[in-house]
């Protein structure tokens, strides 16, 4: 006879599944996104840096909660861009923002036409998302190309 206590594990809610799905998607900055269940509908709120992030967030929500109607209230942040600002100015701002969120990580920042490309290794998925988010939220950044890799030795 088995005398070990059995633990009951509650199934994940649709909200939990969506939040986990967003967190596991390395290319998505979901730091400002949220999910609520209202009247049988899944309501997505928050903001993202570009249209492709919005599409990714909604697509993941649909995969994680296929039996629910999705109400998408996610908005794409407007970007503030001074046409006189150089790519070098944007790159400096992005590098400073990254240094605040990941001070021990060496991330190469390249900017061409206000599109930022990040390269290098970070210590975790959370750090990768933090670096991506820091770059995406800088003024003058139109889009972030994430070429970061995860290497636990970096941490």
Please give a structural write-up.
This protein is an alpha/beta fold and 155 residues long. It contains 4 helices and 6 strands, in the order αββαβαββαβ. The strands form 2 sheets. Strands 1-2-3 form a 3-stranded mixed beta sheet, covered by helices on one side. The protein has a 3-stranded mixed beta sheet with strand order 4-5-6, covered by helices on one side. Helix 2 (51-64) links the parallel strand 2 (41-48) and strand 3. Helix 1 (14-24) packs across helix 2 (51-64) and helix 3 (87-101) packs antiparallel against helix 4 (125-136). It starts with 13 loop residues before the first helix and ends in a 5-residue tail after the last strand. The mean pLDDT is 87.
Which features does this protein show?
155 residues; alpha/beta; 3-stranded mixed beta sheet; 4 helices
What is the topological layout?
Layout: H1 14-24, E1 34-38, E2 41-48, H2 51-64, E3 69-76, H3 87-101, E4 107-112, E5 115-122, H4 125-136, E6 143-150
Parallel strand pairs: 2-3, 5-6
Antiparallel strand pairs: 1-2, 4-5
Helix pairs in contact: 1-2, 3-4
């Amino acid at each position: 006879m088995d005398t070990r206590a059995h633990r009951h594990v509650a199934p994940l809610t649709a909200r939990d599944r969506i939040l986990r799905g967003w967190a596991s998607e390395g290319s998505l900055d979901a730091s400002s996104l949220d999910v609520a269940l209202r009247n049988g509908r899944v309501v997505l709120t928050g903001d993202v840096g570009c249209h492709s992030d919005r599409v990714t967030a909604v697509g993941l929500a649909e995969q994680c909660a296929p039996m629910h109607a999705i109400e998408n209230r996610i908005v794409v942040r407007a970007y503030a861009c001074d046409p006189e600002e150089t790519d070098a100015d944007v790159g400096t701002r992005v590098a400073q923002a990254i240094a605040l969120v990941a001070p021990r990580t060496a991330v190469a920042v390249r900017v061409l036409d206000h599109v930022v490309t990040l390269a290098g290794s970070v210590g975790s998925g959370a750090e990768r998302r933090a670096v991506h988010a820091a770059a995406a939220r800088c003024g003058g950044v139109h889009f972030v190309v994430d070429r970061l890799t995860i290497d636990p030795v970096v941490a």
